[in-house]
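Co-fold these.
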Amino acid sequence: MKISQQFRLFLTVFGLLGFGIFLSGCGSAESGETLRVWAHQGQEAENQAMREIVASFNEAHAIAGIRAEIEFFPDHQYSERIAAGAAAGDLPDIMDLDGPTLARYVDAGLLAPLDDDFSEAELADFLPTIIAQGTIDDRLYALGAFDSALVLYYDREILAAAGVTPPNEDRPWTWDEFLAACATLKEAGVDPVSLHMDESADEWYTYAFSPVIWSAGGSLMDPDTGRIEGVLNAPENIEALRQWQQLFALDYADNSPVEPNPFGLGKTAMDWSGHWMARSHLEAKREALGAAPLPVVGEHRAAASGSWAWAMLSTSDRPDVAAKFLRWVVSTENGIVPIVRANGAVPARRSAFEAFPEYEEIPYRLFKRQLTEHGRPRPQTPHYPALTRNFAEALRDIANGADPAETLTRAATQAQAVADR
Amino acid sequence: MKNVRVTAKRLPETWTAWGFLAPALVLLGLFVLWPTLRALFWSFTDADLLRPQQDQSRGMANYSVLLNDPRFRQAFFNTALFALMVVPVQTVFSFFLALWVNRPEPYWRWLRTVFFVPVVVSLPVLAILWTLLYQPVRGEEMGLINALITGIGLPGQRWLRDPTLALPALAFMSVWQGAGFQMLIFLAGLQNLNAETLEAARIDGAGPLQRLRYVILPSMKNSIIFVVTATLILSFRLFAQPYLMTGGGPDGRTRSLIQFIYETTFQDRNLGLASAGVILFLFIVAFLTLMQRLAGKEEKS
Amino acid sequence: MSRGGKRLAGWIASGLVALFFLLPLIWMVHASFRPENRIFAGGFFGVLDFSDLHVGNYPAAWRRASMGRAMVVSLTQAAGIIGIGLLVNSLAAYAFARMDFRGKNPLFALVVALIILPVEVLAVPLFLTARDLGLTGGMAPTMGALILPFAAKAFNIYFLRQHFLSLPMELEEAARVDGASTFRIYWNIALPSIRPALATVIVLDVLTHWSDFIWPLIVCTREETRTVQIGLANLFTEPPIQYGHILAAAVIATLPVVLVFRLAQRHMVASQSNVGIK
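Predicted complex below.
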């Protein structure tokens, strides 16, 4: 065959293939009988557990002719996907949302309130952080099956070897005590603490270091007026971050780590990290693993909380079925226990803790205690993405040596400008 | 022979022409022109990404907000600076690469392929790879770039974390990736270069610089204009690298125009403002392209 | 300097420049075979350390990023864009090159102007258009959304027109005298004659769309419709973050493009001479 013939054959085949795909695309239609569910994509085990929960829901409701179908989206795609879906009128009946983004979707009128679907007695079973995260303007819009917790893990053996007295589970270190411990560790030749600062400024920064500001009595935003400028850059916040900056200025923490989990490998003595590291840290350290509340700059104790929570779409044409599904995924037996088994998060309901004997032990005991006593959700505002983006960038730059006052003020001004539009 | 075509039936030819054009025009109209017009329309409204079909007119307000927004200005400045670094460096570098490897022996052909290899790396792979290459020094561990410069005795740098180095670091990476492609275009242009003219110039005693100035450059004008225009447009489309590598930081020094538009659309959900950004972006790129063409024409006359 | 010395200097210089282009990629391939805690080990000469290489990252990356499925999606996308694109763009280019009709010049100017419009900034309006056309949701509509918006390309039309213009008329005119239809002339004579240009367009399209990131992020809503780049980005954001897996996936994601380039390369060589924009 001559080359020119090959070429025309190639053209024809691919042309036909392309048009075939196009035509088949025009023909297929979506079936409208099933309940559409969107969820964020977690680790493999978590997705698998979620699929099984959906399967058990379908099995239990097969007689009623109800069927749910779930689609997963990776984190970095999820909010784009929801936004594009909203713009195109292509949204599911029910979806899970990251706690702080809730206000944005409530503000856009995308979500239906859940107050009528749950009794007060039922709601009393949920952790206070779950209710606080799901409530906007006194109406409940979302309920999660689990929550998150953030602690200071430490290696008892490394601390003991350096002569550092471990922090107390009941009383967090003051910032001075924390810095002093870091100094001692550093002198002993150990890298004191990992903070998981990677290159891009993302939600981790806001989640992990808002407690520093809260502990000094500050806030990211005025909860009543929604004002950011003058609040985010209040003097106590600037001072708190000046203290925080010491960690990097004195080289106690790495602001651009190469290694994702240095603590697990024994390269650092302490780890400022979340519940999701508990399993692997326990495996690596066993008895040597300790955990304490995060160090505080001021008098105020506030623990980070917030995670994915389920919400119903106001556009759903079968809200009763959607409500059934929501009840299923946040029920202790059918939803919470299997998902928490898979992802190791903190169960959202008090009644679920019985299924997890590890909550008698460190670090789990601390997670529960923090969430029931000191948990505080991140600010609820429709402009949260602008707030967290600017705050996270400010944190990254401050860790990098930028002046806290100037950086925080610029972040506040820019976030306020977006909110004012 | 020549007049066969001229006498060919006029009217049927018009219909045939439209038949040939129709598929492309329909697709371009649907997927390029129509979305652009939609963006133009939104740019005068307060369109909200999450609340479609409730747009109120805002007149020119989006444009004035945008022009006064320090983040937009910074994004424009960053993008322009990026282009200013990439375009001259990449053009000159790839031009000399082309002159250098423009020889028939297999060794040089093989070398051409080597120089082209980075072009096949897709942008997300590129971003991830260079994030690791730029890793700062931490004890024994460091990225390859720092390993190289500390190896010759210079201090390691925190490339993507340093406000003054981050954008040049992204530009360097772009030059590394794109130079091989521009080199191929220059090599193609060199085929038009008359070897006899060049040889004659050499015999007349013209030095390498004179040959470059009077023989090579004039005959390469079209290729140069093409390369500069294409590199400029591609530089202005900067997105995946800062989005994946620096998140626009440090100090917002790597946030690009497209990243600004992306964040305004999807995070701030301000479709109206973002659309105004799109329109301004198109104006900027159209203006630059036009300048290029005018500059090219002037030289000709 | 002696002739031999000059030649040696040339070889050394070219070797260094070649190293500049290749080293990052060599590092990528090498590190993709290293265990997780040794990725950055050994400094600059770490790439010469072959003691601890293993292939374990590859199956893990393949599985975690669902590479098999993603490859099918990405390759279908590329094939669709190339197939439909070559046809519609060359048809239009031929009309602009060889036919006379009213409004030709302004229309061509408009097409050239469209070259500068980048899809990434138009993602939202484009998504609404795709939605209006029913190109959202399942596998087949998503493939349509991945392919159709990029099939017709102003630059390709412009580029192919330049090549058609540079063909000598004689063959086509002879065929016309023999009574061949315009389409037959285009299909049997003109198209095969610009084969190198078509090969160039194929390579450019593959390079461009293999990098697509924003658009698949928005339209690939189901797991089974994710492209290679989305799968790769997932590894970068989805815990546990393992550089070894990421690098292995990056190598896997690069191989098809290398292959396409190798295949098209020998067709491309002659094509470049008409590339200059006037």
